[in-house]
Amino acid sequence: MERLRRTQTDFLCEAAGGPETYDAEPVREAHLHVPFEPADIERAVGLLREGLAAFDVPEDDAEAVVEAVAAYEEELLDSLPG
Ligand code: HEM
């Protein structure tokens, strides 16, 4: 859990423009063993948006982060079996 917090924090920092960089597994590989539905991705992005708003991140910055993360949707869908 501690490691996941760190790698996800790095990931979000990089998505937000750095200077922190993400150096764990590529998103597709990291989720190969994770069972989820496509709708869970929307839920994850929605929670991210809510979190950014709760901490009063300016709308433009928040949108840029949300878009950068949402851009991984295809990679995630690609990790689903079949
Ligand atoms: C845009 C959506 C998402 C992004 C950008 C994302 C990104 C990440 C990143 C960066 C990690 C860390 C990988 C590592 O430490 O090597 C991670 C791990 C994980 N994610 Fe996601 N994720 C997304 C959606 C989801 C969804 C929808 C689920 C399931 C409902 C999920 C479940 C997990 C789990 C269980 C791990 C831990 C895997 C492990 O360490 O064994 N993620 N994710």
Please give the CATH class: Mainly Alpha
> How many separate structural domains?
1
Oligomer type: single chain
What structural class do helix, strand and pairing data support?
mainly alpha
Q: SSE string, helix = H, strand = E?
A: HHHHH
Estimate percent helicity. 55-70%
CATH topology: Globin-like
**CATH architecture label:** Orthogonal Bundle
Question: What is the assigned CATH homologous superfamily?
Answer: Globins
Report the total helices.
5
Mean pLDDT, all residues:
94
Q: Judging from the principal axes of the Cα atoms, what is the shape?
A: globular
Q: How large is the radius of gyration?
A: 13 Å
- Residue share in β-strands: under 5%
Unreliable parts:
none
Largest sheet: none
GO molecular function: heme binding; metal ion binding; oxygen binding
Protein name: Hemoglobin
Keywords: Heme, Iron, Metal-binding, Transport
Features:
Hemoglobin_trunc, iron, binds protoporphyrin IX containing FE, metal ion binding, Hemoglobin, metal-binding, 82 residues, Globin-like
Q: Can you tell me about this structure?
A:
The protein has 82 residues and is mostly helical. The chain has a single domain (2-78), classed as Globin-like. It has five helices and no strands. The longest helix is centred in the middle third of the chain and has 17 residues, at 38-54. The radius of gyration is 13 Å and the shape is globular. It starts with a helix and ends with a helix. The relative contact order is 0.16. The mean pLDDT is 94. The structure holds protoporphyrin IX containing FE. Keywords: Heme, Iron, Metal-binding, Transport.
